[in-house]
Design goal:
alpha+beta, Arc Repressor Mutant, subunit A, 8-stranded mixed β-sheet, single chain, 10 helices, Jelly Rolls, 8 strands, about 290 residues
């Protein structure tokens, strides 16, 4: 008789502490090896903010959702809010962690989708990581150190200077990322692609087909697929499926039954849900959960 597998515990969630320095400052930076309460083990956890990791030393791997990233010197890892993270480090990891809330930039630029301009965040088609040459890595660390020094003696205008350096860093990283994965190298993205990405983040539980989105966007399937392939590297339907699959896998780590999850994602019945999941993941939802 097979032992019944206990469902995985709820994934730990961590939120930004905006008043760590005495007033609202929605960005922080520190050394991975010395940051207080920094999770560096295999416990599944999520962040409600953005984080970029700059690895100087390390061995083993880092799991971001279901994607494995090797922990090697010169690697930069980009994590977006809600992604499930797990560390499997074989040696002590050292380097910088830069983390910030979306409002640190969005409120300043009055653009709710500003961070979608950077191709390494909210990634569907390519890895959310890259390895850069030593000279480029040092260039990035110089900018990190500029921000770090500003935190040592905070002034009333420090947030403006830190924000400016952050933007310089994000744009520089975006250019490197585009070179590594042969993508468009600037931060311009078609506004209709922004609109689709925004709708997908809001509607993925209830709207699973391209037809649902073209009605809301008032555009043809050909137009939507063209901009999705140009700016996201995938067709619109594949982007929808990637988003759905990622969120379903997160749900399977919780305590809801497979049937409850199926209905929460607006599938008509569990059998349809099982077929959808197996077609994309190559395994059934129950087999996926049992393997956790």
């Amino acid at each position: 008789m097979r032992n019944k597998k206990v469902p995985s515990p709820a994934i730990s969630q961590y939120h930004f502490l905006p008043r760590k320095y005495g007033w609202d400052l929605l960005l922080d930076i520190g050394r991975i090896e010395t940051l207080e309460n920094f999770v560096l083990d295999s416990t599944p956890h999520q962040l409600s903010f953005y984080e970029i990791l700059f690895l100087e030393k390390g061995n083993g791997h880092f799991m971001l959702d279901e994607h494995k990233v090797a922990l090697t010197p010169g690697t930069i890892i980009f994590t977006s809010p809600g992604q499930v993270r797990r560390w499997y480090a074989k040696r002590p990891v050292s380097g910088y962690a830069l983390f910030f809330d979306k409002d640190f930039l969005n409120l300043f630029f009055t653009d709710e989708l500003f961070l979608y301009r950077f191709q390494y965040f909210h990634q569907y088609a390519n890895p959310a990581s890259m390895k850069v040459p030593a000279a480029a890595f040092r260039q990035a660390e110089d900018l990190l150190k500029d921000m770090e020094q500003e935190f040592v003696a905070l002034r009333n205008d420090s947030s403006h200077l830190i924000r400016a350096v952050l933007c310089q860093l994000l744009v520089t990283l975006n250019r490197w990322y585009a070179d590594v994965y042969q993508l468009q190298g600037d931060t311009y993205v078609h506004p209709d692609f922004f609109r689709f990405r925004s709708l997908l983040e809001q509607k993925f539980r209830t709207h699973h087909h391209v037809a649902d989105y073209i009605i809301m966007l008032r555009m043809s399937p050909a137009q939507l697929n063209k901009i999705c392939r140009q700016y996201g590297g995938l067709s619109a339907q594949k982007m929808i499926h990637h988003k759905l699959l990622s969120e379903i896998k997160k749900a399977l780590r919780g305590r809801e039954t497979v049937s409850e999850i199926a209905y929460s994602f607006n599938f008509s019945d569990p059998s349809n849900f099982n077929r959808f999941f197996k077609q994309l993941a190559g395994t059934t939802p129950r087999q996926f959960r049992d393997a956790l």
